[in-house]
């Protein structure tokens, strides 16, 4: 199922409902429905999935998701001004769009979704990284969601897919790549948005792996990686001193030189270190 809907053009929707973009809510809207359909297609076949969309705004991406055949879309929008525009979309796709007027950081979205679940969002930049980290660190793995297709500032997208040795390699790369396949699917210039943001954007696609690439306790790994990259220019024997008093021995046992810096250590290396740190 594909094709643009028969609802009014988004510029008309925005004018009709007085949806002037608010910076405080990270509002940069996508008005080109061909582009929103393209973003929806990055998430793959949606026909058998419930889609969680955070921050639908006037509904450009929501319309793309529904036109591309999503079984259901649950859209969480904080700005009540957007509700009439979203309700118009719900009426055009009976029974397929549930709108939650809520803060995505507080709502119990899982209660509204039936697996398989795909998350697709042009995220508000001010809460994007926080939401990603929450989605990547659920209590159980595999998570409720099957994939995440998310718009970020290009710089954040690069941190998600970064490899060891690069300046952007850090906690976000490790959290993302430990239990997901992560790639940048699409780059977008500022002019793709209304109003245009100052920076370039990119759509990242993450697919949940059935199990982590390397064994490690999630909380220990997270603690080790946070400490290592918090002082990324220091040698690990110094930056990780607070993690364990005998950290040099544990680093060696994990096959890591205590004089190495965080950005030299692979994902496999950090997992080995987390296992060593977890030992009594
Ligand atoms: N998806 C729309 C599009 O592509 O045109 C709008 C994207 S805009 C970058 C981000 C949207 O997220 C805005 O509609 C904003 O009101 C909403 N938003 C901001 N903070 C939010 C939060 N904490 N919870 C839910 N929605 C939020």
TrEMBL record:
GO cellular component: cytosol
Substrates-to-products reaction catalysed: adenosine(1518)/adenosine(1519) in 16S rRNA + 4 S-adenosyl-L-methionine = N(6)-dimethyladenosine(1518)/N(6)-dimethyladenosine(1519) in 16S rRNA + 4 S-adenosyl-L-homocysteine + 4 H(+)
GO terms assigned for molecular function: 16S rRNA (adenine(1518)-N(6)/adenine(1519)-N(6))-dimethyltransferase activity; RNA binding
Primary site of residence: cytoplasm
EC number, UniProt record: 2.1.1.182
Ligand binding (S-adenosyl-L-methionine): 28, 30, 55, 77, 103, 122
Cellular localization per UniProt: Cytoplasm
Domain (Ribosomal RNA adenine methylase transferase N-terminal) ranges: 35-210
Matching Pfam families: RrnaAD (PF00398)
Key words, A-Z: Cytoplasm, Methyltransferase, RNA-binding, rRNA processing, S-adenosyl-L-methionine, Transferase
SUPFAM superfamilies: S-adenosyl-L-methionine-dependent methyltransferases
Presence of keyword Cell cycle: no
Domain of life, source organism: Bacteria
SMART domains according to UniProt: rADc
Family to which the UniProt record says this protein belongs: Belongs to the class I-like SAM-binding methyltransferase superfamily. rRNA adenine N(6)-methyltransferase family. RsmA subfamily.
Function: Specifically dimethylates two adjacent adenosines (A1518 and A1519) in the loop of a conserved hairpin near the 3'-end of 16S rRNA in the 30S particle. May play a critical role in biogenesis of 30S subunits.
NCBIfam families the UniProt entry points to: ksgA (TIGR00755)
Protein's name in the database: Ribosomal RNA small subunit methyltransferase A
